[in-house]
Design goal:
three-stranded antiparallel β-sheet, alpha+beta, four-stranded antiparallel β-sheet, globular, 16 helices, binds zinc ion, Ubiquitin-like (UB roll), 3 domains, single chain, 53% helix
């Protein structure tokens, strides 16, 4: 890494000079073990000597700390903050809930390096709501009733997150990475289009869940349950911190289809997408015999969705954004 245009005083040259930032490997021994760390140094553009720049030392202390923790498998500051956010719990109560002393977590947050044993407990709590719940129950008498109940409720809602398939979580995580604001209604429609287009292009489903024909279009009930609290508002969920990295498990084909849908259907609101699904065969067939405002829980079979989108693909070429936009345009003029 080299950055240009920065200036400071060089002791060797005795004047203000331009300097470059470069990466440099250093070997440092911590508790009798040698580690190689990559740090940033400032090089004088005139004499080539190393310069001391304010702020750089702090940055390197942080870099070394992060690299040391990664090498030893120790938790980071952010991991602890993520745990606090997900379980809606303060630093002292979290410390007690995990079976540590009251000041342990606050000290870690101030920069003290955690032990391997305690790191593993924090990591296990982050990875599994079941484990976190077990810890909370073990240490219940050390917590206030309010803190305990809040954290248990959060653990229950995180467990429901894991009731959805990994692939579904991956798709949802990727959609949220790509779109700024997504309401529950929008998400339901996007998932349906993603499934339909993936079925048509690859002949198999992207996720295992089946959707049902509710009044406002196709709905994945498990996903509905996850986000029902957001009603008509954009989903802003502390639990997403747990989904970070889930989208990495998607294949290139899967990401391609999600990109296609997000860049086309994703430009519309939930109600507009609802109009489109209401004019598609799979939904109309599943709703046969039901009045407009009569609830139903009929499945939209994947085979039927696939058949419909294969026909759409033949007509519009839905493996491109242009084809999809044309399809959307035709469906919306049909609906109005
Ligand atoms: Zn110099």
């Amino acid at each position: 890494m080299i950055e240009k245009g920065r200036r400071d005083f060089c002791i060797e040259c005795r004047k203000e000079v331009e300097y470059l930032l470069q990466k440099k490997d250093i070997v440092k021994s911590i508790r009798d073990k040698a580690y190689t760390f990559s740090i940033t140094v400032a090089i004088c553009a005139e004499c080539g000597g190393e310069m001391s720049i304010p702020g750089l030392i702090d940055k390197n202390v942080q870099e070394i700390d992060g690299q040391y923790r990664a090498a030893e498998g120790l938790v980071l500051h952010e991991d602890i903050e993520r745990l606090m956010k997900i379980y809606k719990i303060g630093k002292a109560p979290l410390s007690l809930a995990l079976g540590f002393g009251e000041v342990t977590i606050p000290r870690y947050l101030e920069g003290q390096v955690p032990s391997k044993e305690y790191s593993d407990i924090v990591k296990a709590a982050l990875a599994s709501p079941v484990y976190m719940k077990q810890k909370l129950m073990e240490n219940r008498e050390k917590l206030t009733d309010a803190a305990y109940k809040k954290a248990i409720a959060a653990a229950d809602s995180i467990e429901s997150l894991f009731s959805v398939s990994d692939k579904m979580l991956g798709v949802i995580a990727y959609v949220f990475e790509k779109l700024e604001e997504v309401t529950p209604l929008m998400l339901q429609k996007l998932l349906y289009f993603i499934q339909g287009i993936y079925l048509a292009l690859y002949g198999k489903p992207i996720f295992a869940e089946d959707c049902r024909a509710w009044i406002h279009g196709p709905v994945y009930p498990e996903v509905y349950d996850l986000f029902r609290d957001f009603k008509y508002n954009p989903i802003d969920d502390a639990r997403f911190a747990l989904l970070e990295g889930n989208e990495d498990a998607l294949t290139d084909d899967e990401k391609k289809v999600i990109d296609l849908v997000v860049n086309t259907f994703g430009m519309y609101g939930g109600k507009t997408m609802e109009k489109i699904t209401h004019n598609e065969d799979p939904w109309m067939e599943a709703r046969k015999g039901y009045g407009d405002s009569i609830p139903s829980g009929e499945f939209l079979p994947k085979g039927r969705i696939m058949k419909y989108y294969i026909a759409v693909n033949q007509k519009y070429g839905i493996d491109t954004e242009i084809g999809l936009r044309e399809y959307i345009h035709d469906m919306l003029s049909k609906a109005s």
